[in-house]
Every structure is written in structure tokens, then in C-alpha cells.
Specification:
Layout (H helix, E strand, L loop, with lengths): L1 H16 L1 H22 L4 E9 L3 H6 L5 H18 L2 H11 L5 H6 L1 E5 L5 E8 L2 H23 L4 E5 L12 H26 L6 H8 L16
Antiparallel strand pairs: 1-3, 1-4, 2-3
Length: about 230
């Protein structure tokens, strides 16, 4: 138990002795992360539009009451529609209409389609470095999807709930989170460096070091004399 207490005390003393190294490395890591997040990393914005899968217009005309079976069918179709949204048939017209310098696969990688749990709603999200472009692409994909779904599945039961608008805040990089992670990593690296320096430092600095490293008795200590010149 005594040895553990001594070891813990030594660890604390080593860290206190080289506190400047720990602080400097940690601060450098935070500064580098902040500079990268603010000035180097490309900001990414996400714009979303939502669609609802409802009953077909013909079914509305023949039956004004919403049946449970209709809702269940619409929910199942929502999952199918999510895959159709990212198909070449839907995305290629968007590329041509907006004159995007992208391939279908590149556009597909920037698009996320999610069917909300237990609802008939599909959300189409697009990520781009330009917030206005992200909103424009999301709306164009929704329009292309509604045009093509009529031809693909012979149905007209998809309507837009909310059109995408240019987002005001970016989703990446997350500057605060990046700096916090950098601080933790910087602290870990600095502690490793401190103990590495201490391990490599074999100089004798105190009477205790003589007994610890050389296993020799200390016969005497010459006190430090400070001379003041007048």
C-alpha cells in the first residue's frame, strides 16, 4: 500500500514539474484544431424537403374515409419510394436540369432519404458546401421523383409537405466538438511525452535519486549557497 502511495505521489510530482509541457502541447492541439475547423475544412450544409405518401386520388374519390389498410400500405410504400428517390432515373434529370458538375453516383452520395418511423412521411436531405445549392438540389430531386413515380408505379399519391430552404447553420465541421476532442488527445499525448522524457532523463537531481538509482547511501548534502552582490 505504501509503495502505491509513493508511486502516485511521484506521478503527481512529475506532472507538476513538467506542467508547462502539458499545457503547451494541449493548447497547440486545440489551436491547430480550431484553425483547421474555421479556415481549412470545407463547411457542409444540409437542406431537407419532406413528402407524404397518401392514398391515390382515385381512391379518395371513391371512398372519403381513411381506412387502416390504406395507411399501412402507404407506410410500406414509403420504404420503397426511399430507394426510388436515389435511382438513376430520378437523379439524372436533376443533374441535367441544374447543370451539376456531378455524376449520378456523386450526387447519390450527397443525398439521404429516410422514411419516418410509423409515418407516411419521406424526408429527402442533400448535403452541399453551398446552402442555397443544397436547398435547390433537394427540391429538384423531390420534383423529379414525383414526376417519375407516376410513370414507374402508375400512382399519384405523393405530395410535398415542406419545400427545402437554405440552411443557416452548417452541420460540419463541428468546431466546438473538434476543439474538445483535440484538447483530450493533446492532453493524452502531452502526458505520454512527459513520462517519456522523465524515463529518458537519468540525471541525478536529489539525494533520493542517488538511493533510488544507484542504491548508495547518502553521506552528506552540500547546501545551495546564494551569494548576493551589492
Amino acid at each position: 500500500m505504501a509503495e502505491e502511495e509513493i508511486d502516485l505521489r511521484e506521478i503527481f510530482l512529475i506532472m507538476r514539474k513538467r506542467a508547462k509541457v502539458i499545457v503547451i502541447i494541449t493548447l497547440l492541439a486545440m489551436i491547430v484544431s480550431g484553425i483547421f475547423s474555421y479556415f481549412i475544412a470545407t463547411p457542409v450544409y444540409k437542406a431537407s424537403t419532406s413528402l407524404i405518401v397518401s392514398r391515390t386520388q382515385s381512391s379518395v374519390l371513391t371512398n372519403s374515409q381513411i381506412q387502416v389498410q390504406d395507411i399501412q400500405t402507404s407506410r410500406m410504400l414509403a420504404a420503397t419510394y426511399s430507394e426510388i428517390v436515389k435511382s438513376r432515373r430520378v437523379l439524372q434529370p436533376v443533374i441535367e436540369r441544374l447543370r451539376l458538375p456531378l455524376t449520378v453516383d456523386q450526387l447519390k452520395n450527397s443525398v439521404d432519404v429516410a422514411a419516418k418511423d410509423n409515418t407516411e412521411i419521406i424526408e429527402i436531405s442533400v448535403e452541399n458546401s453551398d446552402p442555397s445549392k443544397a436547398a435547390e438540389m433537394a427540391n429538384a430531386i423531390a420534383d423529379s421523383f414525383m414526376e417519375n413515380i407516376v410513370k414507374i408505379m402508375k400512382i399519384d399519391n405523393v405530395q410535398v409537405i415542406d419545400k427545402a430552404i437554405p440552411p443557416t447553420s452548417k452541420i460540419s465541421p463541428k468546431t466546438t466538438l473538434n476543439i474538445a476532442v483535440a484538447a483530450i488527445l493533446g492532453l493524452m499525448v502531452s502526458i505520454f511525452v512527459v513520462f517519456l522524457l522523465e524515463y529518458m532523463d537519468r540525471t541525478i537531481k536529489s539525494p533520493e535519486d542517488i538511493k533510488k538509482y544507484l542504491d548508495l547511501p547518502v553521506l552528506g548534502v552540500i547546501p545551495e549557497i546564494k551569494i548576493k552582490f551589492r
